[in-house]
Specification:
The complex is a heterodimer of chains A (122) and B (171).
Chain A (H helix, E strand, L loop, with lengths): L8 E3 L2 E7 L3 E10 L3 H18 L4 E12 L1 H17 L3 E5 L5 H13 L4 E3 L1
Parallel strand pairs in A: 3-4, 4-5, 5-6
Antiparallel strand pairs in A: 1-2, 2-3
Chain B lengths: L5 E8 L2 E8 L5 H17 L2 H21 L6 E10 L2 E11 L2 H14 L4 H14 L7 H7 L3 E8 L2 E8 L5
Antiparallel strand pairs in B: 1-2, 2-3, 3-4, 4-6, 5-6
Helix pairs in contact in B: 1-2, 2-5, 3-5, 4-5
Classes of the chains: A alpha/beta (122), B alpha+beta (171).
Chain lengths: 122, 171
């Protein structure tokens, strides 16, 4: 894997903390992805995808355990990212969920249905 | 309770509970009401799963009303809880001023979501959303597919009404 550069993202009540490991990247989302979070989340996921391609990343772990809510505007950016991953076909996304949050079960089931060959949900 | 940006009233007649909210275009009100409604619903129906579904429904309907209302006037949200032959029923109703174009757009979405395989429609809408530059148009689909609510819309006198009802007792 080539050197990957990602910076943390902080918005009102919402943050993303990346961690680059040996052969994968992990990003931990926390707070609530709502209000104006979509304005920063979209560009962030676009940059993440580019870095994954540039760095020959094989796997991205997305930790949602501390994410209390995501609105449809932010979900749209995840859908777009997943569609780009489907097109590129070069790495997998593993979503780590919080089973106590019902919305995550329903939302991630749909995302996995959208790209079953590219997404795992834990 | 009355605030500058909203008024709400909760009431009940026997085991039938009602919640009425009138609100202005203030996006910060949405997460506040979502959290409140989730707690309120859990208290009324003693079902955390259903409370989460209603909270998601309220969030998306309020965002929809604020995003697409054709004026700065008040939008309304009403929730009704009742029991029917042992099943817990919930109906969430939102209404706001809407342009003809918005009515046409929303009603075409709810028509699609009335198909038998909501999940398949939702995945089609994911595909469309991934190619769209502006707006997600996923809010109503989330209500139908993720919150598992039957959803429909109607319009009269320049206002649109969206009704979401849980499917538990649907025949």
């Amino acid at each position: 894997m080539n050197a990957v550069q990602l910076t943390p993202l902080a918005a009102e009540g919402f943050s993303v903390v990346p961690r680059v490991e040996k052969e994968s990247i992990s990003v931990a989302l926390s707070g609530a992805a709502q209000l104006n979070a979509h304005l920063v989340l979209g560009p962030y996921l676009t940059a993440l995808h580019k870095e994954c391609l540039r760095g020959n990343v094989t796997q991205v772990r997305v930790d949602l355990t501390q994410l209390n809510f995501m609105n449809s505007s932010c979900l749209k950016h995840f859908v777009t990212w997943v569609a780009n991953v489907k097109d590129a076909g070069s790495y997998r996304i593993i979503f780590v969920t919080n089973t106590a949050l019902r919305w995550q079960r329903a939302c991630l089931a749909a995302l996995r249905g959208f790209a079953p060959d590219h997404i795992d949900v834990e | 309770m009355t605030g500058e940006q909203f008024q709400f009233r909760a009431d009940h007649v026997g085991d039938r509970h009602y919640f009425h909210l009138v609100f202005e275009k203030r996006p910060r009100l949405v997460p506040i009401m979502r959290a409140f409604i989730e707690g309120y619903t859990a208290e009324v129906v003693d079902d955390a799963d259903l409370a989460s579904r209603i909270a998601l429904t309220v969030h998306e309907l309020m965002e929809n009303a604020m995003g697409y209302s054709s004026d700065e006037g008040s939008a309304k949200l009403e929730i009704e809880f009742w029991r029917d032959e042992g099943s817990q029923r919930v109906r969430v109703r939102s209404s706001n001023a809407a342009s003809e174009a918005n009515v046409k757009d929303v009603c075409s979405i709810t028509d699609r979501l009335s198909q038998a395989d909501v999940f398949a429609v939702y995945l089609e809408m994911f595909e469309e959303a991934s190619r769209r530059q502006q707006g997600s148009k996923l809010g109503l689909a989330r209500i139908a597919a993720e919150a598992d609510m039957k959803i429909c819309c109607s319009h009269a006198n320049g206002r649109i009404e969206i009704v979401a009802e849980n499917r538990e007792a649907r025949s």
